[in-house]
Amino acid sequence: MTTYIAHARIFDGEKLLDAQSLTLNGEIVTAIGGDTAPAGAEIVDAQGATLMPGFIDSHVHTSVESLREALKFGVTTELEMQGYWTPQQRTEVNNDDTLADVRSALIALMAKGGHPSELMKDLGEHDPAAGESKGWVMPSVSTPDEARAHVNAFVQQGADYIKVMIEEGTVMGRPDLPQMNPQTIRAGVEEAHALGKRVIAHAITLDATRQALEAGVDGLAHLFIDRKADAQIIVALADADVFVTPCLVISSSLMGNAATALADDPRVNSRLPQIWLDTLRGRFNTYPEGNFQHVLDSVAALHSAGVDILAGTDASVPVASHGGVAHGASLHHELQYLVQAGLTPSDALAAATSVPARRFNLIDRGRIAPGLRADLLLIDGDPTTSINDTLDTRAIWRRGTRLAA
Ligand SMILES: [Zn+2]
């Protein structure tokens, strides 16, 4: 089937185009521009709306149901930073156009008894048998050899990239969490690179961030929240070409802020089940002494220094004590925070489209161009000047299939 979208403002993931029409056929965009619809095409009049690539959330922990919620908000791809899917489950998600697509790190490199086992305990998943019943046991590593074996095992099981947990617990309300030693982290990173996989570190403090840099990671799944970025760390991150997914929404939750205004937004609560609205109104509150403005200032400084900023939420499970975030909805909240930090609306949109596509080598998406996957959003208004407009979703296409309203 061919669809011709006319009279749209088109943001291609990097910039506004002069063209105002687009043709998609089957799963891909086939043409940009052209004044007449191809014969037999369904015509969509996009007057007053902006067409842009589907959003990519660069930090989640997800499930089939969460992928469904994400897509309702225009998130067409979720990048999971710890979770588990069998290859068969991955194929089912890939072929289901009612779900966001997913990429996953599968199980992260983590220390025995270290992060995130303390969160799993809260959720009643500390019993190894609970993991077993889901098809896996939460593994941990203590030595370089174990780290290499772990990376090999999960790459074989389909990990798209490798996640490493560097967390001493100070901002998680659990000081003295066990950690892997630097040699073990380094061995895991080197093994992943030898296998052609990127490595993304969980690091929420400046110390942990320095450890991640020393280990040679490619990206950070959080931005440190215990300190404002100083010139030294900014230069170090820029020189190492490390990308940063600040996850401002979860940072705010750690500091005690619930996402009440987001949950109250009719564009959100009309689309979100009650359990997720309750989750948005929850919060972590493990680091109330934190200064959120400092985190926003750090984002601005990193962006100015040329560090790639990616939009991510760290959305996971619908539990209020782990709340403040929800799949899909919170990506819009993150974009609002990125603009509050000082990114232009277009830069914020790029952080959720073309930038993660480039950094995660998702060559078939994240931009609008002929031949690329037709993951598209039609948004009323102009999010390139008013980021608040992103929630005014008029239509969503996932792989060329329009999501039923
Ligand atoms: Zn996470």
User: Structural class of the secondary structure composition?
Assistant: alpha/beta
| Rg, nearest Å | 20 Å
Number of strands: 16
Ligand identities? zinc ion
Uncertain segments are: 126-133
The total of helices stands at: 16
Kindly report the spatial arrangement of strands forming the biggest sheet: 2-6-14-15-16
Averaged pLDDT: 94
Main pleated-sheet profile: 5 strands, mixed
Write down the overall geometry.
Answer: globular
Q: Proportion of β residues?
A: 15-25%
Task: Estimate the helix proportion, in percent.
Answer: 25-40%
Distance between the first and last residues' Cα: 19 Å
A few lines on this structure:
The protein is α/β, with parallel strands linked by helices and 405 residues long. The protein is built from 16 helices and 16 strands. About 2% of the residues have low confidence.
General description of the model:
The protein has 405 residues and is α/β, with parallel strands linked by helices. It has a five-stranded mixed sheet with strand order 2-6-14-15-16, with no helix packed on it. Helix 6 crosses helix 7 and helix 13 crosses helix 14. The longest helix has 13 residues. About 2% of the residues have low confidence.
